[in-house]
Design a protein that fits this description.
Layout (H helix, E strand, L loop, with lengths): L1 E6 L10 H12 L7 H12 L5 H8 L8 H12 L5 H6 L5 E7 H11 L3 E5 L16 H11 L2 E8 L5 H4 L2 E8 L2 E4 L3
Parallel strand pairs: 1-2, 1-4, 2-3, 4-5
Antiparallel strand pairs: 5-6
């Protein structure tokens, strides 16, 4: 049986929300992306009014990807945003760590390569259209994807900033909540 440490990404390893920061980064370089704002607003309003779920809202948000070379831009983004990686993680990272995130896989691949992280599980979003090609990797879906993609494994430590990750915390021998870079025991 494999032992591993599993980490959420946004707000845990990375100080912030990488998807939002990537969007703002893209918007500064390509101001014409404002043309996607009506679709993004439609998504937010529809989600808040419970007309549709989080995945549809995120597809509307990621519609701006139609206006950029997202994979190239993701590389540039991480060249300039590496400093957002938390020092506590850099001090303890190991080759077999697993990063699991609701953020798009194409966005996190460059930073995971740079960090030497070989195991990334994230939302599969088409970088050309912004459409999901699988389920949003959030909540219970994270636990399902971990077990499906990593096989039989034992989670030694799980680290997250969000209680939505409780299903993963319940799988771990030790769970930790990250609050503003401070690690606290998560009593599950």
């Amino acid at each position: 049986m494999k032992y591993m440490n599993v980490y959420d990404f946004d707000g845990t390893i990375y100080n912030g929300d990488s998807s939002v920061r990537f969007y703002l980064f893209a918007l500064r370089r390509h101001p014409a992306l404002v043309r996607f704002f009506p679709m993004q607003l439609f998504g937010i309003c529809g989600y808040l009014r419970k007309k549709f779920g989080k995945t549809k809202m995120k597809e509307c948000f990621f519609s701006f990807l139609q206006g950029v070379d997202a994979e190239r831009l993701a590389e540039e983004f991480w060249e300039q945003n590496y400093a957002g990686i938390q020092q506590w993680y850099l001090d303890r990272k190991e080759p077999e760590d697993v990063v699991i995130s609701a953020s798009p896989e194409f966005l996190l691949l460059p930073i995971c390569r740079r960090l030497g992280i070989r195991h990334l599980i994230a939302s599969r979003v088409d970088p050309q259209t912004g459409r999901f090609t699988g389920k949003n990797c959030y909540g219970r879906e994270k636990a399902f994807r971990l077990q499906t993609e990593m096989g039989v494994c034992r989670v030694d430590g799980f680290y997250s900033d969000s209680v939505s990750d409780l299903p993963l915390a319940e799988l771990a021998d030790h769970a930790w909540l990250i609050r503003k870079g401070v690690i606290q025991r998560w009593n599950v």
